[in-house]
Design a protein that fits this description.
The structure is a single chain. The protein is of the alpha/beta class. The protein is 30% helix and 19% strand. It contains 18 helices and 23 strands. A nine-stranded mixed sheet has the order 3-2-1-4-15-16-17-19-18. A four-stranded parallel sheet has the order 11-12-13-14. Helix 3 crosses helix 15 (448-460) and helix 9 packs across helix 18. The protein is globular, with a radius of gyration of 23 Å. It starts with 38 loop residues before the first strand and ends with a helix. Residues 1-32 and 497-502 have low confidence and may be disordered.
Length: 568
């Protein structure tokens, strides 16, 4: 294979797309990026997750043009155009790429928040003074810094990649002119795919739809997937957010396109109602357990045959990445006596989210004709699905998106003909291939190392960053008065900023709000902001993460103790 040297770094913004040509032997499908995916032949133990239970203890996946061409036993004759010498041994177990349907990515620069007390619904903790000091205040400062925003994008996407995530929620921006867009990077963005065979999910509800249940329901019927925070908490107030979906005529604004995030306050009959419409839910157990001491009644959701997915939520009150979240799901199920197998849990980050997004014809499993998104765990023996649950970031040997290796152990990436920025995890040297021709220039100019340095400096001196942003705002006000204000972009930080399209909408249906209060703690003054430390990129790189979990007063002891055992 010809050597490919990749020195650039990338996150694609709204740059023009470049069309590519594909081999006539492969299906013609629009790629995630303009790079021309070549041929790959990867050998290892293959867990297809195709619904039939098919696995190959020693198989080979043949990839061409970003698409899976064949999956065969390693001893079988390679397909036309490939030879036996093309196969590269991964020395591990190959799974579909992980799809995470709930993650507030920009916040993943922050370390775990020390939850001050148990809460019962989402409307409570946002107003806590310590949350303002350590989460919302710092993020508002970082989110308004033109110098730090690109570093945030670079860092949090790399954090996804090293944990095997190939699709996630995106990073949204809004501007002083009222326009909005998404950063679209190497990791697939479920809200902005730019691929005709991957329909885009909605995560924000426009103001007009948040005031009319008829308009909301009409949009839901036209959508393929709407990811909506639903019943976020454990009390009656949280459940009322779900009950607000009942229409005046007694019918419900629920469709197959609805994917409710959290659903922790739902009752058995609520899960039945969702399942009857073939809706989905996204479970974030660690975040729920840290904030509320309890989580969704997953046994009742499963009894209703509801499609269940997993999401790590965000670093301040959840898992550092989805690898941690699948461990927590396993621990909690065992502790509560819930019949949840390792295969069930792996389905929650592969085939189930693909089904919720209506991507299951293209992703979520390893099958001929599907897009070549996959992750390789460096273990080739033992329980099939448990291999992924047991894995840490240091166990991931390779991550491939659209047939292009994007992260992997140095030796394997070299064998595949790829190079890039080096990263050390738990004593192992990895390579991040972040090159992309049409990358956003501000992000492409930054290496992961530079991003870490910038974010560490910014979080360590938030007062200085805040004052610089205030000066920029004053210049903007003066320019506006003169009628010449330049466009200025900000990170859209969910419910911290009124952007006209909220991630946690407060739709007023039947005098019942379907989302939590947007009331926040008083914004701290620059001089009051503490010096913070950048969240390490991986659990295996964080000497304090498990001890910080054990010090959380609300989290059930069994979770932190058993989670720590995975990372010894």
């Amino acid at each position: 294979m010809a050597k490919r040297t990749t020195t650039g770094e990338s996150i694609l913004g709204n740059a023009p797309r470049i069309r590519t040509t594909r081999s006539a032997k492969a299906p013609v499908k629009k790629p995630i990026d303009p790079a021309i995916p070549g041929k790959l032949a990867l050998r290892g133990r293959i867990v297809t997750m195709d619904g039939s239970g098919r696995t190959l203890n020693d198989g080979c996946i043949y990839i061409e043009g970003g698409v899976i061409r064949e999956i065969k036993k390693a001893s079988a004759m390679p397909p036309a155009g490939f030879s036996a010498r093309d196969a590269i041994s991964t020395g591990g177990t190959i799974f579909p790429g992980l799809i995470e349907l709930h993650n507030h990515l920009p916040y993943n620069i922050l370390r775990l928040w020390n939850i001050p007390r148990a809460f019962t619904n989402r409307g409570q903790w946002g107003a806590h003074p310590d949350y303002g000091l350590r989460v919302s205040g710092p993020m508002k400062v970082i989110g308004g810094s033109a110098d730090l925003m690109p570093a945030v994008v670079r860092y949090v996407e790399a954090k996804c990649l090293i944990s095997g995530v190939t699709s996630s929620q995106g990073i949204a921006l809004f501007s002083n002119s009222g326009s909005a867009r998404y950063y679209r990077g190497i990791v697939r963005n479920v809200e902005q795919t730019s691929e005709h065979d991957l329909p885009e999910a909605l995560t924000r509800v426009a103001d007009v739809e948040a005031t009319s249940i008829a308009s909301f329901h009409a949009r839901l019927k036209k959508s393929t997937c709407l990811l909506l925070h639903l019943a976020e908490g454990i009390d009656k107030t949280a459940r009322k957010h779900f009950l607000g979906l009942e229409k005046p005529d007694g019918t419900w604004a629920i469709e197959q396109s609805l994917a409710g995030i959290h659903c922790a306050a739902l009752h058995r009959e609520d899960f039945v109602r969702l399942a009857a419409k073939k809706a989905s839910m996204v479970w974030s157990p660690l975040s729920n357990l840290l904030l509320y001491g309890d989580t969704a009644h997953i046994e009742e959701a499963r009894a209703a045959n509801l499609n269940i997915c997993l999401g790590s939520d965000w670093a301040p009150t959840g898992s550092k990445n989805v690898l941690g979240e699948i461990k927590v799901a396993s621990i909690w199920a065992a502790a509560k006596g819930i019949a949840l197998s390792a295969q069930d849990i792996v389905e929650m980050v592969t085939m189930n989210p693909a089904r919720a997004l209506r991507w299951d014809a293209e992703l979520g499993s390893l099958e001929v004709g599907k897009k070549a998104d996959l992750v390789v765990i460096g273990v080739s023996t033992g329980g099939l699905h448990q291999t992924l649950i047991n894995a840490t970031e240091a166990d991931i040997r390779l991550v491939v998106i659209n047939g292009i290796p994007r992260h992997g152990e140095k030796s394997l990436m070299a064998a595949l003909g790829f190079s890039g920025e080096r990263l050390t995890l738990h004593g192992k040297v990895y390579v991040l291939n972040l090159a992309q021709e049409s990358s956003d220039p501000a992000v492409a100019a930054l290496s992961l190392r530079q991003s870490k340095r910038l974010l560490s400096g910014g979080l360590g001196d938030l007062g200085r960053v805040a004052m610089m942003s205030e000066r920029a705002s004053l210049k903007e006000i003066r320019a506006m008065a003169a009628g010449a204000a330049p466009q200025r972009w900000f990170l859209a930080l969910d419910d911290l900023s009124q952007t006209g399209q909220e991630l946690r909408p407060r739709a007023g249906f039947r005098d019942t709000m379907t989302g939590p209060s947007l009331a926040l703690a008083r914004a701290p003054k620059p001089s009051e902001l503490p010096s913070l430390t950048l969240d390490p990129i991986a659990v295996v790189s964080d000497d304090h993460y498990i001890s910080a979990l054990k010090n959380q007063s609300v989290l059930p002891d069994v979770v932190a103790n058993k989670l720590g055992a995975f990372y010894r």
